[in-house]
Amino acid sequence: MLSITGTEAMFADIGHFGRLPIQLALTFFVYPILIISYLGQGAYLIEHPEDVRNPFFLSIPGGSNSGIFWVVFVLATLSTIIASQALILGVFSILSQLIKLDCFPTFRILHVSKHCRGKVYIPTINWILMIGVCCTTAGFKTSNNVTSAYGLGIAFDLIVTSTLVSICMVYVYNWNIIIPVCFVLIFVPLEAVLVISNLKKIMHGAWFPIMMASLFMIFFSFWRWARSKAVEQNFNTRTRISDLYPSFRKVPENKTVDLSHKPEDESWMDLGGEVLEYGIELPKVLNSNHNKLDVRSKFGSTTLQRHKGVGIMYCESSIHILQSPNTVPQIYRKLVSSFASIPSVFIFCSIRILPIPDVPNSERVLIGSMKIPGHYRCIIRFGFMEEILINSDLNNTILSAIPDVQALIKSDETIPGINKVDDIPILHIFENNAIRSHTYSEEQFKTKNPFFLAARYIRRVLINQIYSPLSSITEYNDKLVSIVDEDNETEKKLLIGEVIRI
Fold first, then answer.
1. What is the spatial distance between Cα 143 and Cα 94, in angstroms, rounded to a whole number?
2. How high is the pLDDT of residue 322?
3. Quick check: 120 and 110 in contact, CB under 8 A?
4. Are residues 163 and 312 both part of a single domain?
5. Which of 176, 203, 229 is the last residue of a domain?
6. Could you write out the DSSP letters of every residue in 231-272?
7. Are residues 222 and 303 in the same domain?
8. Is residue 462 part of a domain?
9. Structural domain count, the chain
10. Domain containing 491: what range?
11. Which end of the chain is more exposed for a tag (fewer CB within 10 A), N or C?
12. What is the rounded distance in angstroms from the CA atom of residue 57 to the CA atom of residue 43?
C-alpha cells in the first residue's frame, strides 16, 4: 500500500506537466529504483529475518553509525518532505476545483505557473493544513498509531479513485462498455478486500479518516446547497425594468430599429456588431440618449435625477446579467428606489477569469448597451496568472469606450475640474448582502412536530453562524478596486446591500 500511495503522490506532483513527464519519471527513474530497493530489502530479510522490524535502515552497510547511514537518513527525510509536498499540491488542486464548483468558500487562489494552470497555491489552506497536521501529530503521538488510520484512508482512496475512473471511461472518454467493466472486475474486488481487512482497525485509530471524510462531505454538501439557495434567491429577486421605470411598459407603434444600420445621429456609436460571451450575444451598439425617466421609488413616483459622473456597480453573476436584457439586479432596484438619484453614466460590471495566463489589453473589456439610457453592461476579463485588480488605467479604458463619457467631457456646460477622463468622478458600488435563514414565523409554516422544529433550528444555526460569516469573510467585494488614499477610498466606494433569506 505504501508503494501504491507513493506512486499516487508522484502522479499528483508530476501530473501537472502532462503524460510524457509521468511516463519518463516512472519508466526510467522511479520504477527501476523502487524495484532494486525492495528486492534488496527482501534479499536482506532472507538472510536476517530477525530484522523485519525495520529492514530499510538495518540493511544499510556499516550499521547506524556509518557515513552511508546518515546520507540515507537525510535522503529519507527529504523524501518525506517531498511526499508531504505532493499531498499539499493535491489538496490545493482539489480545493481549487471545489471553489469553482461553489462547494467551498472562495479563498484566494494564486497560480504559480503560466504554462501549467493546475499549479496553484492557496495561502489560507496552507496555514489550515499546518495547524491540522500539528494537531493530528499531537493526538496520535507516534507514527505507529497513525498506521491504522493511514491504511484505511488509503484503502478508501483507492476504491473511490477506481470508481471515478470507471465513470470517466463511460461518460467522459466514451469507451466501449467492455473496458470499464473489465477494469472494475479486476481492481475494485482487490481494493474492496483492502477496505474490509482494514475495518478491524477502526477501534485503533482508523475512525479518524472516517470522521474527517464525513465532516468534509457534510461541509461540502452544505456549502453547495447554501450557495445554490443564495444564487437562486438573487436570480428570483431580479427586478423587471418596466416595474422600476413605468415608461418602458409603453410599446411604440410601427417602429422598427435596425441595429445593423448606423443612424446619422452622432449619439449612437457602433463598436463592431455583437460579441459572443457565455454563449449569449452582447449588443455592442451604445446609445447615449438621456431622456428623463420616471421611477417608482419607495416614496412614490418621481423623476430620476442624473448627476454628472460615472457609477460602476460590480455584480456577482455575469451570466445572469447577460441573460436578462429586461431585468436589473435587486441591488440596483434598492439603490434607485431609495434615492431616485444615480450618476449620469451607470455601468453593470462583472469579472470573468479565462483559462489563459494573460489577456491582451485590447480584449480585456467588453461593453454593451442596455435598454435604459445611459446604462451599460461591462465584462472585464483576466487571465488566471493576472492579479484581479481594477486600477485607474483599466477604469480609463472602460470610460473611453463609452460615448456618454466623451459627451460629458465635451459638454458645453461648465463643469469645474472635468477636462479629461481622469477627472470624471467615479463611484464604485459593491454588493454587501447579509445572508440569513428563513424564520418560518408565518402561520402556514407553524408546526409542533419536534423533528421539524429541530431541523429548522439546525438549519438556522448553520446558515446564520457558519455560512453567512464565512461567505462574508471570503468575498472580494471592494478589494477588486485599488484606491491607495484612505480619504479617496471613502468617497469613491459605496457598499450597499440587503438581507437575503434562504
1. 26
2. 59
3. yes
4. no
5. 229
6. HHHHHHT-EEHHHHSGGGGPPPTT----TTS--S-TTEEEEE
7. no
8. no
9. 2
10. 294-433+475-501
11. N
12. 14
Q: Is 268 part of any domain?
A: no
pLDDT at residue 419, as a whole number:
58
The pLDDT-based confidence of 186 (bands split at 50, 70, 90) is very high
Same structural domain, 212 and 304: no
Do 188 and 306 lie in one domain? The reply is no
Q: How far apart are CA 311 and CA 306, in angstroms?
A: 11
Helices (H), 318-427: 318-322, 330-339, 392-400, 403-409
Say if residue 178 is in the same domain as residue 60: yes
Give the largest Cα separation in the chain, rounded.
Answer: 100
Which of 209, 229, 249 is where one domain is finished? 229
Mean pLDDT of the chain: 80
Same domain, yes or no: 223 and 308: no
- Cell output for 364: 480585456
Residue among 434, 237, 433, 243 at smallest CA distance from 337: 243
238 assigned to some structural domain: no
Q: Are residues 39 and 187 in the same domain?
A: yes
Q: What is the dihedral of CA 141, 122, 317, 472, to 10 degrees?
A: 60
Contact 239, 330 (CB under 8 A): yes
113 and 207 together in one domain: yes
Give the model's confidence band at 102: pLDDT under 50 very low, under 70 low, under 90 confident, else very high. Answer: confident
Q: For residue 399, give every residue at least 6 positions away whose Cβ sits within 8 Å of its Cβ, in sequence order, or none.
A: 310, 345, 405, 421, 424, 426
Q: Find out whether 105 and 471 touch, Cβ atoms under 8 Å.
A: yes
267 pLDDT higher than 80: no
Output the nine-digit C-alpha cell for 445.
Answer: 409554516
Distances (CA, A) of 268 to 80, 130, 286: 66, 58, 6
Residue 224 lies in a domain: yes
CA atoms within 13 A on the CB side of 460: 10
Distance CA 101, CA 92 (A): 14
Position 357 scores a pLDDT of 82
Residue 420 has a pLDDT of: 67
